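Please study the protein below:
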Amino acid sequence: MEKLNIGLFIDTWFPMVDGVINVVDNYAKRLCKFANVTVFAPKVNKNYTGSNLPYKIVFCKSAKFFNLDYRLPLPKLDNVFKKEIKAANLDVIYIHSPFSIGKMAANFGNKNKIPVVATFHSQFKQDFMRATKSKLVTKLLLKIITKVFNRANLLLTMNPKCSEIIKSYGYKGRIELLPNGTDLAPNQNLTDLIAEIKKNNNLTDEKILINIGRLTKLKNIDLVIDSCKILKQENFHFKLFIVGGGQDEKYFKKKVNANNLSKEIVFVGKILDQSLKSAYLASADLNVFPSFYDTDGIVKIEAAAFETPTLFAKGSVASSSCINGVNGYIADAEPNSFAKKIIEIFNDTNYSAVCKQAKNDLYLSWDGVVEKLLNIYFKEKKND
């Protein structure tokens, strides 16, 4: 099998942490065992070099973008970056965001007859509405990014619901399904780390809930906190670990304090150590993930690796892989319903069976995903 030159293009990068960055990093780590891999990304922190990565990374200039977590990449103003793209002699271009870097990559691929593969990761309509507060501007922005996606030879989505969303934006091309995976190992010995977590938090018989991800209102964390307030009123003994950081962290901490939930809810912060993250997931009894924003949610796969089921919000895209009461749980996105469902889950004699089925149905390693991705690359190169 020939060794391909593969370029992965993304409009943000470490030390910023989000789901898309983690996906690209996991792809690149595994693809570089079989191909020549280069990640093209913006420089978001002058002290971050990426020298510890097993694959090549090329940075472009970026600038602060209003008051957002993300910086604005400036690839058109970076001649060195443009030269590096040409010098990579790419066989496949794989874009993970439809903004300045992704747009440049798609145009470069079309111009030079290099197959372009893209993945639809985010519900951009929600992002744009939150940022602009304008339906008209949102419609215009969706038209712009969809034009980039339509330059791809093939678009990958995680599930059929994602395919419906991108089609509603105006995408007209081919779509294939490729689910996300996880690099968390379900068979590792986490006994000491779990014991340490429980000791440090004085845990005895409380049910442990967990929410992992970027701390933004888009993730519906308000619903989680409001539900916890009801759980406390119902004398349900629990501890919620909120893992992550983000632009709305201060807001959520203030809300927790205002609702007298500081003993029940712990803000853990970002966790970069995979063993520690695994220990938190393995110690949890339930992953609460009511996000309407996420197109899939890697955290549900990560939780499933340790037989920790997920509670989703009814109607969310992420819940499309869940069969309620079989491999996870679904509740109406309303505090009383969500809290009631949490109590019901732990009174259900079928809980242990759901935990096991979550792992059987939802857990998938990145190694398996990348094997499928390589086959897609070779097929696209052959068809080009």
